[in-house]
Amino acid sequence: MNTITLHHTLPRVFRGRTDIQSDIWQQEVTFERGHLYLIEAASGTGKSSLCSYLIGYRGDYEGTMCFDGHDIRELCTYDWTVLRQRSLSIMFQELRVFPELTAWENVQVKNQLTQYKSDAEIATYFETLDIADKRDTRLGHLSYGQQQRVALIRALCQPFDFLLADEPVSHLDAENTRVMGELMMAEAQRQGAGVIITSIGHHMDLPYEKVFKL
Amino acid sequence: MKLIWKLLRRHLSIGQLVGFFFANLLGMLIVLLSLQFYEDIVPAFTGEDSVMKNTYIIVSKHIAATNALGGEAQTFTAADISDFESQGFTRRVGTFTASQYQVYGSLSMGGMGMGTEMFFESVPDDFVDTKWPASRDGEVPIILPRSYLAIYNFGFAQTKNLPKLSEGVVSMVQMDLRLRGEGGREVTCKGRVVGFSNRLNTVLVPQAFMQKTNAELAPNAMTEPTRLIVEVKNPTDDAIATYIQDHGYELENDTLEAGRATYFLKVVAGIVMAVGLLISALSFYILMLSIYLLVQKNAEKLQNLLLIGYSPARVSRPYQLLTIGLNALVLLLAFALLFWLRGIYLERLWQMFPTLSEGSVTTTVLIGFALFVIVSFFNIIAIRRKINRLTPRFKRLKGGLYRTINGK
Known about the structure:
The structure holds two protein chains of two kinds. Chain A is of the alpha/beta class. Chain A has helices spanning 47-54, 77-86, 103-114, 119-128, 144-156, 174-191; strands at 3-11, 28-32, 36-40, 61-67, 70-71, 88-91, 162-166, 194-199, 210-213. Chain A contains six helices and nine strands. In chain A, the strands form two sheets. In chain A, strands 6-7-8-3-9 form a five-stranded parallel β-sheet, with helices on both faces. Chain A has a four-stranded antiparallel β-sheet with strand order 2-1-4-5, covered by helices on one side. Chain B contains twelve helices and 13 strands. Chain B has helices at residues 2-8, 14-46, 65-70, 78-85, 146-160, 167-172, 207-217, 238-246, 255-297, 299-307, 312-352, 362-388, and strands at residues 56-61, 90-95, 97-98, 102-109, 112-118, 121-122, 139-145, 174-180, 186-197, 227-232, 249-251, 393-396, 402-405. Chain B folds into two domains: 2-47 and 259-405, no CATH class; 56-249, no CATH class. Chain B is 53% helix and 18% strand. By secondary structure, chain B is of the alpha+beta class. The two termini of chain B are 28 Å apart. In chain B, helix 2 (14-46) runs parallel beside helix 11, helix 2 packs antiparallel against helix 12 and helix 11 runs antiparallel to helix 12 (362-388). The chains are: A alpha/beta, B alpha+beta.
């Protein structure tokens, strides 16, 4: 997948509103593989909705969204499964991790599916993000910031053309934010992937090529 | 798979599964047991007989003290026979031919000899269901009632300390026959028992042999038959019983009773089986409700798995395997219980019907497997459909608008 394009899209809840001032909604927008984007949003502007549309979880919008020119509404369940395994990695704002599994198992749930990273590579990620000692702790017992780091490792355990990170560092300190940014960019560059990061304020200090106001 | 199972087994209700397990086991066992019991017991009534079909009835005239003394005819006249033939329920009528001479049969086994006065009868060859088995040269093939052997084995041999004889042993022994007719005419020949019948209450020889010996030994005797063999269309037909009663005839075997008994047995077995199937169906619902509840409780987890790239097929699999496993366990346990119970009732049955041959279990086993396959198939489909509903699908509406089906 090389491009994600939005043709005049708008969440259906905003329909009829005339005061929308957005770089994304009701615009022609193209995200390209290999580039880094930041979407800055105020609360309630539809940031999480945008992510839900792109991952195929919701479809309550007007206009069309296309992957490589194909309307994503035409995709079947199987297409989405393949996309989520091979082309599109997402780090959810609400994390969508499994509290009853350990940190390590949470990553393995994904990696066993994709067989993308070795155990050693994953262990290195744990070390780098300073949660190596939490490996075998049940995720439910970790802080939100620690869970965010586990969610990032999970998101990196797959091949992707685009990495979509929805407020990835909302609960991290400056040092961890920096480390996380480095890890993400290193993997994205290795894969030649595009990265789309959203934020409602506090965000990673990265060389964004384009910044959208939602 | 292990991790997925660890996630998805949450909220699994052991109580519900145990409930399903026993309900399904009960249903399955009732279905299989009623089927098997029917298979096993029906031969006791219908007496599936290698010699005589169960659509044959044997008719004689009623013997009462008065007509025995008064000399009223107990034989069937040509008019009686043609009247019988003209009845709607009749397919064809044959007559029994009795030997018009005395028969003395003896056999010797291992230096021990036994002999008895006896008689022969014959019916037209096409009434004997199987062809007369080929007998060795000059031997007269004989078909004995199975009850004779039972009387000997359980009555006579037991009290006299004589060896019990199996059908196989009896068939191996050659019999010496001495036939003595009018005017001291005598014929000796060899005979051999070639078969046993549950239904024909006579010592049967081939029609041709009977005609030949009667002509030779009693050329002047001409008698009318005392018994008829009738092939009917449906032995459970009420008209037969009425006709026979109206004409003062008697049925010599219990085909009609057996026909009715079989019919009722079929009805009862059918009702019991239906109850079993109903219980099975209800237990199927318990399982489905339990799994639906499980899917509902784990919906968020299932959805997360789908969103990180698991296919619906893959997340359905643990639940599908669980149900197949349970169904297989139920099937195996039902088979085990079935064979155990069958052992118990067969023992009782054999005490009542010593000659009863064991019914086949093939049908029951096949039906059991068929039920397993059908139920598992529907389980698999239902689970998959339920999981599929967790994945959002979009539908193009008129005017280019879209609506999300399920999902948010």
